[in-house]
Amino acid sequence: MRRRDFIAATTASAMLVVTPLAASVGNGTGGRVVRYALAARATKQRLGPEDAPETDLWLVNGVSPGPLIEARQGDELEITFTNELDVPTTMHWHGIRNLNAMDGVPGLTQPAVEPGETFIYRFPLKDAGTFWYHAHNKGWEQLARGLYGPLVVHEAEPDSGPRDILLMADDWRLDDDYQIHEDSLGSLMDWSHQGRLGNWLTINGASLPDIQVPSGKVRLRLVNAANARSLTFQLGAGADAEIVALDAAPCTPFRTDGFRIAPAQRVDLIADLPEGATSLYELSGGQPFEAARLIAAPQAGEAAAPRPAGPASASWYPRPDIAGARVVDIHMQGGAMGNLTEASLMGEMMPLRELATDHSKMWAFNGIVGGYENLLADVARGETVVLRIWNDTRWEHAMHLHGQHFWVNSREFGRAEHYLLRDTYLMAPAERADLVFVADNPGDWLFHCHMMEHHAAGMGGVIRIA
Ligand code: C2O
Ligand code: CU
Question: Residue 226 Cα, ligand 2 centroid: separation in angstroms?
Fold first, then answer.
């Protein structure tokens, strides 16, 4: 699907309504209330080649990915969300430094939205950047079936210009008839290993799409919506690119050849595209796999690609001093080939074998299989917090904190020292990392692995900010 069609189709189907923010509700930024209507429903869409049957999916407003939600920094979003599925669900606004009650975590921040029910999410947009939304009930199944979409908060004008290009990737596991491979949903093999890895890559809901773009500089916003696979992208020869933001937060720009995006992470690039076709390759399969083609043509009188504000001038906060900070030790354990022999589930100690076979659990933090009841820390508002994490497993994990971004000395780009502000950090096996944040957003916030199967199998807990 071409990007222009994608934008037109999705904006119409989301029934965008923008109204000036009433004076009585003023948030002090002069922003507006931007309204969207979203519905989760069962729909068909073709993910395979032209002659393939359509795939039965669960989608937001009947399209994959769901509608692009666009607003401007300082606006408020109001999303009327209706659940037309026959199972409960919720929506989570990934990366938004949200109001706790709007965070969309069932059983923690709200009750699940039952079939036929509507829930109104309304929250201010403090930060500009590339975000996304996704279901947060049984994510391992609901994301695998397609319940997610992109959310872009612009620095200035609220429209995607032609130089602002969203590329949302997914890694589906399809059977021979191009249907979701259902027999393996909940597979303990996947849950104890890397998670559900797919066999069908899409960009913006299509296999190897041609995407029309202007030649010259463009902003590419890549989102990885996969359940478990970290994707490695590379632009074809002749395209020059630098990373300007990660997980919505601007970074000091750095050049890159290929880069990995873990599940839930976002990478914003400014790329200089030559006229003609530039392929976007995905390399996680060992050899370059063509994922999309950017077809670039000159465009007269075009403005420059929209750049994020620099790291210092943005709404984000500088890296805090950790002297005197509250240190929370988190020992990540479990999974296949790990050294976890027993762990506590709901207060009861059990051998790993029993946890796995009777409860589908095989991961833990500090010897405790995580659920929403697992309180990892209770911190005071305003405190500087260090989540001191040790990945004592044989697997990578994409660690995500709700409600705030953290600073991390990232090893993701192969550098010795590289401090980044992120909301999801990909940890290598045996790695130790400090995730540092100022706890200024009150509420109960989930901290979990974004490999959906790992989270479901126990890799999660709660940070309470009083
Ligand atoms: Cu992307 Cu708990 O979320
Ligand atoms: Cu994990």
Answer: 13
